[in-house]
Amino acid sequence: MKAAFFALALGVFLNMSTFDGQVWPIGSVAAIVMMGVWIKVSMDRRFEELEKQIKDRSTAQNEEKEDQ
Question: Residue 50 belongs to what H/E stretch?
Fold first, then answer.
């Protein structure tokens, strides 16, 4: 959630920039890129946790079958 607020603040700040009297929406681009990176990292972390849980569960099931 902090990343979303940071991206929003950065977007607003950078959107105030002008070059030769024209406003460039660099802040919007930066905010979109930041949120995209944050979402990707977050999803990668969750998938890694899910893969670990699946692996642990399959290992436990294999051990149970060997004990029987």
Answer: helix 26-67
